[in-house]
Specification:
Elements: H1 13-25, E1 39-50, E2 65-75, E3 86-87, E4 90-92, H2 99-111, E5 120-123, E6 127-128, E7 134-141, E8 155-162, E9 173-175, E10 184-189, E11 192-195, H3 198-210
Parallel strand pairs: 1-7
Antiparallel strand pairs: 1-2, 1-4, 2-3, 2-8, 5-7, 6-7, 9-10, 10-11
């Protein structure tokens, strides 16, 4: 039996209004102030799907698609930590930066997508990673974003994954491990999958921004390879 068709989700004014409405109604849970963990921000950047995500199990459009997509990267193999893993554009906050400023700066540095703070739609919950960071997810309306240039020192590849892909009925995937009382969360993408912490942020984007449900994800576990 073929899986059910995913909804049409064009990146248009109606989608932007829907996401902004859901974010305004969402009570963001921030990590306690004054903690000792380093802080980082990532961009959940809504772009055009373009020519596809180029991943196993995902159809590749023959022409440019204006379906809404999220921008993800594969981290460079040269990086000291988390090399080759799925990621959202982002990184550590510089002194005096807000999470919004850091997310936009990092996106410009990693994939050459330059936007100002008018593109920011809101935040999702902070997520404390096993590797010792407090991550603030920033939702960004990033336009068509047709001219992306990955920074080879940080990014191995750039992917536009249709936002509708995260609405699949089999998402999220939850796995039990002996090392934690909480389930490891993964998000299926084509024939592949993305693990928490990135997957947790993608799942909350789906729940809050697309579905209007105030779903919390900070308790979900990460796979052991992400603990380092």
């Amino acid at each position: 039996m073929n899986p059910p068709a995913l909804p049409d989700l064009p990146r248009d004014d109606a989608l932007r209004a829907r996401i902004e409405r859901h974010l305004r109604a969402f009570d963001v849970q921030a990590a306690p102030a004054g903690g000792t963990l380093p802080t980082a921000a990532v961009a959940l950047a809504i772009v055009d799907e373009g020519l596809g995500a180029d991943l196993r199990g995902l159809p590749k459009p023959a022409a440019w698609s204006t379906q809404a997509a999220l921008l993800l990267t594969r981290r460079s193999a040269q990086l000291r930590r988390h090399a080759g893993q799925w990621a959202l554009p982002g990184g550590r906050l510089d002194a005096g930066e807000t999470p919004e400023q850091a997310a936009l700066r990092e996106m410009a540095e990693e994939v050459n997508l330059v936007l100002d703070e008018r593109a920011v739609l809101g935040r999702l919950d902070d997520f404390v990673t096993r590797s010792g960071f407090v991550i603030t997810p920033v939702v960004v309306w990033a336009g068509a974003a047709r001219e992306l240039v990955p920074n080879p020192h940080e990014v191995a590849s750039v992917h536009r994954i249709a936002a509708a892909e995260f609405l699949r009925a089999d998402a999220p995937l939850l796995d039990r491990i002996d090392e934690s009382e909480h389930a490891v969360l993964r998000m299926p993408v084509g024939d592949d999958w993305i693990a928490a912490p990135t997957a947790a942020l993608l799942y909350q984007f789906r729940e809050v921004c697309l579905e209007g449900r105030a779903t919390r994800v900070a308790h979900f576990e990460q796979p052991l390879f992400a603990w380092k």
